[in-house]
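Per your request, structure below.
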């Protein structure tokens, strides 16, 4: 049943794993299986999930827990993936928030599906810091006017690794996942605040391909 639900609309499952990411403004239109459909569904049915004992905790475990780590024919990869996820979970809960935990997990899962899984070699703490910095650099984590706020140097220090090593691995991740453009307002890895403040949200595309303000 879970597989069928995720196949019908995976965005419902993803938003239920981190309800804080659900935006306040609802979309005006939706297509079946789209993110917009998931948001409209949750605007009406999230209270049911919240009032069902253990329901959201179960979804959270499915996303962040051991079952979320991909299973492959490479035991070393599976072991490193799970260790990396747990490391990031601890860090985000201590220093950042659920939004960052969700996005860091999402990035690790994307990396785990690459032909070359970069974090199977090297110090795992360096890769964990690089994952945080990759997400942070796209969401103004280094900007004091944003919350949460944390410098790259402090992230590296928290993991016990050098900032230069983290920078190099962050570049590797960005290259591998093609995350250089756009640097900000990346729809796949934006925090809730970044999604809400994206200036492109105020634009619409006409049938002729022209942009105009909503």
């Amino acid at each position: 049943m879970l597989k069928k639900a995720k196949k019908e609309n995976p965005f419902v499952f993803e938003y239920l794993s981190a309800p804080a990411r659900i935006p306040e403004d609802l979309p005006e239109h939706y297509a079946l299986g789209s993110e917009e459909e998931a948001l409209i569904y949750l605007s009406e049915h999230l209270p049911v999930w919240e009032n069902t004992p253990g329901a959201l905790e179960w979804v959270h475990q499915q996303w962040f827990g051991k079952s979320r780590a991909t299973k492959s024919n490479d035991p070393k990869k599976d072991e490193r993936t799970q260790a990396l996820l747990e490391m990031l979970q601890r860090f985000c809960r201590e220093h950042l928030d659920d939004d960052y935990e969700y996005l860091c997990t999402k990035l690790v899962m994307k990396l785990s599906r690459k032909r070359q899984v970069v974090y199977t070699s090297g110090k795992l703490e360096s890769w964990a810091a690089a994952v945080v910095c990759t997400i942070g650099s796209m969401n103004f984590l280094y900007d004091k006017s944003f919350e949460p706020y944390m410098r790259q140097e402090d992230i590296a220090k928290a993991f016990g690794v050098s900032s230069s090593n983290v920078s190099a691995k962050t570049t590797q991740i960005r290259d591998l996942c093609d995350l250089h453009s756009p640097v900000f307002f990346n729809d796949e890895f934006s925090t809730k605040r970044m999604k809400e403040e994206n200036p492109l949200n105020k634009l619409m595309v006409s049938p002729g391909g022209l942009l105009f303000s909503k």
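The CA atoms of residues 73 and 79 lie 11 Å apart.

Regards,
D.
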